[in-house]
Design goal:
Blueprint (H helix, E strand, L loop, with lengths): L13 H6 L5 H7 L7 H8 L8 H4 L10 H6 L19 H4 E3 L2 E5 L2 E5 L18 H4 L4 H12 L5 E5 L8 H12 L6 E5 L2 H4 L6 H7 L6 E6 L8 H11 L4 E7 L8 H13 L3 E6 L14 H12 L9 E4 L8 E2 L3
Parallel strand pairs: 3-4, 4-5, 5-6, 6-7, 7-8, 8-9
Antiparallel strand pairs: 1-2, 2-3, 9-10
Helix pairs in contact: 13-14
The protein binds pyridoxal-5'-phosphate and iron/sulfur cluster (SF4).
The site of pyridoxal-5'-phosphate (PLP) has 8 residues, from strand 2 and strand 3.
Length: 336
């Protein structure tokens, strides 16, 4: 069990770590010893998509460095408020593909359940930053409608719990959900798309680990890390404890200007992931969501980085470079 102790020496519960996340730009700037002039623009940009970052993640940032690659992922900037043609609120066509409340069925055999709108961290480049969770949420009573669609569609072999972050749900809520999915005979796999083990490793408690090995369905967990500094010893230990339960661990990253747009960074990320028993899966080109244009790396540059990476790493540690296009039957490979 991964637990950060509080002052009394008791294991700190993840709910507490989640509640204590930094949401005020002034506090983030102060904790990191940054220029106070960053506060006002951050407040303006946070009006559209609030700041949220767990303290443990902030502790992995370099003090006094406004260009820190972890900080860049979470600090709201004025650049987010500049309109760019082609950068829109729903860039991947999630809304037209909704099969029902909270269920996205775009690809054969697998459907994605929006299990919750809540995330432990708010990533500035998130393609769902403007997703209308309140309308689409599969929460409470709406789970039933989504589950009924899953039961009725025998072509579905895999359910992906996503969000938001599905590990924002309590262990008992997850257990209820997986018990229901276990009982659907045509399902063969359960997948989780989560950033919690990386940004809030406290979430990987013994209850979660027990849950992961309690379902009849083989579990794949796709975590989300973009930079090697995100994977410190605590995160690596949390990931290994998940792998010990027989879960297949994969990572997806987004290629982000000023964060991980170099072969050196991505090589180190792949190697640290493997040390923690995670394989690189996708490297996504940025989804063109409104407010994220300043993170975009062009396709030509992305291909150069990937080529360099391929020349250095074994094939199984090289992620697949993809982009998401509305209306396609899978992620689209980006090829030379
Ligand atoms: C990305 C995505 C998936 C998963 O795609 P894989 O290629 O299987 O990883 C499934 N459903 C939706 C709606 C997605 O956006
Ligand atoms: S954790 Fe994932 S869903 Fe949540 S804000 Fe970050 S990118 Fe978006």
């Amino acid at each position: 069990m991964i637990a950060v102790s509080n002052r009394a020496g008791q294991p700190r519960r993840w709910q507490e770590a989640l509640r204590e996340a930094i949401t005020d730009p002034a506090e983030l700037v102060e904790v990191l010893g940054l220029d106070p002039a960053l506060v006002e623009p951050a407040r303006r940009a946070a009006e559209r998509f609030p700041l949220r970052v767990p303290r443990g993640f902030v502790a992995r940032m370099r003090r006094g460095d406004p260009h820190d690659p972890l900080l860049r992922q979470v600090l709201p900037l004025d650049a987010e408020l500049v309109e760019h043609p082609g950068f829109v609120p729903d860039p991947v066509g999630d809304l037209p593909s909704a099969a029902g409340p909270g269920l996205l069925h775009k690809y054969a055999g697998r459907a994605l359940l929006i299990a919750t709108g809540a995330c432990a961290v708010h990533c500035r480049y998130c393609f769902r930053r403007e997703f209308p969770y309140a309308e689409q949420l599969a929460g409470a009573s709406r789970f039933e409608a989504a589950l009924e669609l899953i039961r009725r569609d025998a072509s579905l072999e895999e359910v992906i719990l996503s969000g938001g972050d599905p590990l924002s749900l309590s262990n008992s809520r997850l257990a209820e959900l997986s018990a229901t999915l276990d009982a659907v005979p045509h399902l063969r796999r359960l997948r989780l798309h989560t950033r919690h083990p990386v940004v809030l490793p406290e979430r990987v408690d013994s209850g979660l680990l027990d849950w992961l090995s309690s379902t009849r369905l083989p579990v794949a967990m796709v975590v989300h890390a973009n930079h090697p500094a995100e994977i410190d010893a605590t995160v690596a230990a949390a990931l290994r404890s998940i792998a010990d339960r027989g879960v297949t661990l994969l990572n997806q990253s987004v290629l982000l200007k000023g964060v991980n747009d170099s072969a050196d960074t991505l090589q180190e990320l792949a190697e640290r992931l493997f040390d923690a028993r995670v394989l690189p899966y996708y490297l996504h080109l940025l989804d063109r969501v409104r407010g994220a244009a300043h993170f975009e790396v062009c396709e030509e540059e992305a291909l150069k980085i990937l080529e360099a990476l391929r020349a250095r790493l074994p094939g199984y540690l090289t992620p697949r470079l993809v982009r998401e296009e509305a209306g396609q039957h899978s992620k689209t490979p980006v090829a030379q």
